[in-house]
Amino acid sequence: MSNTELAEALKELDLTLKPELLNAIIEHYDRPPKNGFLELAEFMTLSSLVTDLKAIEASKREEVLQHFIDLDMDKDGYIDDDDLKKALESVGMESEDATALAAVTSTIADINSDGKITIVELARYLEM
Ligand SMILES: [Ca+2]
Ligand SMILES: [Ca+2]
Ligand SMILES: [Ca+2]
Fold first, then answer.
1. Which are the contacts of 91, defined by CB distance < 8 A and separation ≥ 6?
2. Is the pTM of the predicted complex or chain greater than 0.70?
């Protein structure tokens, strides 16, 4: 799936995103060997995310999506404890502190307690 196709798919869902953000999404979810395109499997990871985006207020979508792709370190379309820990370590936090803060954050943000934070849960968390 190319940039244009992704943009089309998003348009069908009534979502328009800045080109820079589209590129960031493709760059993020394009798995090795990276080819600048999202194949079906890669797009499937993204599609629940894209559907969930609709549930988020239009004015907040881009901001939330930006945070989401920054935090989804293993690129599976969800944020879990591991992602949070890695993200915190990547900004210089000690491993032990990162583990503790990740656990607290996911307890608060993971509304249905399934161990995964979706983009909708992240949006609610960021509003707190
Ligand atoms: Ca690819
Ligand atoms: Ca993840
Ligand atoms: Ca959850």
1. none
2. yes
